[in-house]
Amino acid sequence: MSSSPVQKKRINTPRQVLFASLVGTAVEFFDFYIYATAAVLVFPRLFFPATDPASSVLASLATFAIAFVARPIGSALFGHFGDRIGRKRTLVLALLTMGISTFVIGMLPSYKSIGLVAPLLLALCRFGQGIGLGGEWGGAILLAVENAPANKRALYGMFPQLGAPLGFLLSGGIFLVLSRWLTDTQFFAFGWRLPFLASAVLVLLGLYVRLSITETPVFAAALKRAKPVEVPIATVFRLHTKQVIAGIMVCMATFVLFYLMTVFALSWGTTALHYNRANFLVLQLIGVVFFGLTIPLSAWLAERGRRPVMFVVSALIAVFGLFMARLFSAGPHGALTMMVLGLALMGVTYGPLGTVVSELFPTSVRYTGSSLAFSMAGILGASLAPYIATWLANKYGLPFVGYYLTASAVVSFVGLLMIRETSGDDLGVTVE
C-alpha cells in the first residue's frame, strides 16, 4: 500500500514554528526568572546563615551566577546533539532538564532544616537550570530562523526573544500576587515554593508543542549534502573563533543591561532605597511591558540591516548608563522612568540579537556556535552583573553602576565592528 503525500512529508506551518519557539523560551525564562526573583527576596533568608543579611544576599547572588557558568556546558552538550541529530529532539531534552531542575527547587528543605546541605542542593539545581537554558536558547532561535523565509529571518527570530519578557511577566506577576495575597509568614513558609512547583504545568505544555513539530528544512537539507560534523565544538573553536568572540562582545551590553534592570535593581531598590517589595515589582513589570513592545519594532527594523540597529542601540545604552543612577535615586517616578527607558532599550537590542548571532555560523555548527557565544556572554555580562553592581554601589556609589553599563555598551559596539552584515545571506548555502 502506498503512503499518502501527507504521510511522506509533513511541513511545519508558520504558526506551529513560531508558537513552538515562543512557548519553549517563555517556559525556560519563567523558570530562570523565578529563581532570580527568589534569589533576592527568599533565598538569602531561607538558604543561608542569618548572621549577616548583606553576606546572605551576596551568597544568594553567587548561586544565581552558577547557572551562567553552567550555560556553556549546556551549549556544548546540547549543541553537539543539535548539530548532529537535529534541533527538535535536542530542544525537548533541554526543556526537560530545565523543568526538572526548577521543580526540585520548589521541594528543597531550608538551611534551618538541613544546614549547609540546603545551599549546596540549591546550587546543584541552579546548575541544572543553566545546563538546560544553555541548550534551549540556541535551539529555539534556530527553530525559528531556519524555518523562516529569507526576508523574514529577523521577524521569525524575535519570537523566541519574546519568551524573555513573557517569562518575566509571568514570574514577576506570580510573585506580586503571592506578596499581596499571603502574609510574610505564609510567603516564606510555603508561598515562594508555588511558582517553582507550578512550572511543571508549563513544561508539559512546552513539551507537547515541541513534540508536534518536524525538523527544520535548513538542517534537513544540510544532512542530505554532507554528514554531520563529528565534534561540533572542536570545529567551532578551530574555524570560527573570531565569530565566537565577536558574538560574545555583541551580546555584552544586552546581558549587563537586563540584569541591572531586574536582579540588581530589585535588590538595591528594596534594601538601600527602601522600596516596598510589591510596589517595586509593579515598577519592574511596567518596564517589562516596554521590553516586550520594542522587540517586534527592532526586529522589523533589522530586516533592513542588522548592524545599523545594533550600533544605534549600543550607543543609546552607553548614554543611558551615564544618568541611570540619577533616575534610580529620584523617587518612584524616577525609578519607573529608569525601568521604562532601560527595558525599552533592552527590547531594541534583544529583538534582533538571536538572528544576528545565529547568522554568524554555518548550518553544520550553528547550534553549537550561537549557543556558545550567547552563553559565554552570559558568564561575562550577566552572571556577576548583580554582584559587581552591588559591590560598585557600596564601594564607590550608584553612578558607578551606570558607568559599568556604559563600558559594556562600548564592548558591544566594538564587537559589531568585527562582524559583517548578514541580512542578505542564504543560511542554506553559508560557506562551511
Automatic annotation (TrEMBL):
Span of domain Major facilitator superfamily (MFS) profile: 17-424
Subcellular location(s) per record: Cell membrane
Q: Which Pfam families match?
A: MFS_1
Q: How does it sit in the membrane?
A: Multi-pass membrane protein
GO molecular function terms here?
A: transmembrane transporter activity
Alphabetical list of InterPro entries matching this protein: MFS, MFS_dom, MFS_trans_sf
The regions listed as transmembrane in this protein's record are 17-36, 56-78, 90-108, 120-143, 155-178, 190-209, 244-268, 280-302, 309-329, 335-357, 369-389, 401-419
Q: Which UniProt keywords apply?
A: Cell membrane, Membrane, Transmembrane, Transmembrane helix, Transport
**What is the name of this protein?**
MFS transporter
Supply the source organism for this entry.
Telmatobacter sp. DSM 110680
